[in-house]
Amino acid sequence: MRGFRLFVALILAAFAAPAAMAGQDQAQPDVTVAGVIAGKDAMTYREIPFDVPAGVERITVALSYDKANKTVIDLGVWDSKQFRGWSGGSYDKVTIAPSDATPGYLPGPIPAGRWHVQFGVPNARPNSSAAYTVKVYFDRGSSARASAAIANPPLVDRPGWYRGDLHMHDANSDGSCKSQLGRKVPCPLFRTVEAASASGLDFIAVTDHNTVAHFDDLRELQPWFDKMLLIPGVEVTTFRGHTNIFGPSRFVDFRVGTPGVPNFPALQKSITAAGAIMSINHPASPSGEICMGCGWLWTDTDWSQVTAVEAVNGVNIEGPYVGLGFWYARLNEGKRLTGIGGSDTHDPDGPSRIGRPTTVVYADSLSVPGITAGIKRGNVFIDTEGTRDRLLEMAVVSGGRRAVMGERLRPDETLSMQLHLVAVRGAAVEIIANGKALAGLESTIDSDDARVKVSLDRAQACGWISANVRGKTGLLLIGNPVYIECR
Fold first, then answer.
1. Which CATH class is domain 17-150?
2. Residue 195 and residue 354 in contact, taking contact as beta carbons nearer than 8 Å
3. How much is the pTM?
4. For the stretch 421-455, what's the b/e string if a residue is b when 16 or more beta carbons lie within 10 angstroms of its beta carbon?
5. Which residues pair with 326 in a beta bridge?
6. Consecutive sets of 10 residues in the chain, 487 residues long: mean pLDDT of each?
7. What is the CATH number of domain 160-484?
């Protein structure tokens, strides 16, 4: 839910679009400057100039030098007009973008022109010589070299189930909480992250409305909260629906109907260009003065650009105004969308608890690319009560072929649904086919670690099938579908 070990790990892997990250040339610097610091340079400053072309969206600067003779080089950066930051000897790699920057550096626009790395040399022994190399990387167009250069390995580099909350707010939009004197005030992001950490989550996405101001705060907080991955997100709030985007590399203009965003498909293209995935929020909510623009009313939605639907928002699980029915209806239309959940918490101390519901993702690694790719693949379930241990694993087997949630299967005449269920003793399994529970196939779970098999015929399963777990209080676990292709 377990965080990056070093500062540079925060959002940066998320900021690189997967296609851009894939190219081998992403590791190559755009600018390389080499030189020597000699003994005579002690207690002086030196400028290392480099040119920034138009259209750059992120800059990463990496410094390496020979420290054998106790030479010390402090590091800073000036853009073409002004000071952008100073880290001294704290970091050998720093990044600057409009949305965020390394602590000690100022986020903001990246003006084209002559920038410079500023060296300060507090120590260089007499007659010494220390070689240095400065490498500068740019994110520009489809190239994400700056993001690739600053990205660290995953927090956990192994496949597994990771538990998170994909929807919450803080003072950067409309989150509030009580101050030290008990007053209701805009709630600092660290309070939200503290509450999430206390819930034992592996990851969270902070999704303030229409802004990326919290990205810089996330970068500062991540090194301290090193047990939980912080994913940069935005709730893109339009007049005809709200959508969360996860892992954007930059601000996305939300103002549909203005010259820059003439229609909703244009907004979707901008989301994709920013390297983010898109999830429809609380889509069945009524839109009006109580919740302005909350329901999903965009009839020109390009569903091929949508990854997920928020099937559960907060504690609202079933009924006409929750997302489960909307999601099932889209699946019946042939749209392959992952069902997820989010607490939509606006007060970390309030009744809407962070982590309830929990979205549980099977991912190759605990990293922003790992989690977003896991959501895309769809091997995901929703733990509606936000426990730390409930598990729903599902596979469908037919004719020697096997598919897990999110995958496709072309069946023979019979199929076997194989379930692994943990910590739901006494609850019942529901088999869902094309949005409806199949009568007569319910199964009571008789242990805390249960294996359940259910046989289906081809006619029952064509389209899509999934499994839910229902307890006395309602749905406890909601599974994603396996798509059954009968044609």
1. mainly beta
2. yes
3. 0.91
4. bbbbeebebbbbbbbeebeebebebeeeebebebe
5. none
6. 35 37 62 98 98 97 96 98 96 95 96 98 96 97 91 87 98 96 97 96 98 94 91 97 95 97 97 96 91 93 98 92 96 98 95 95 96 98 97 97 98 96 97 95 94 94 97 96 94
7. 3.20.20.140
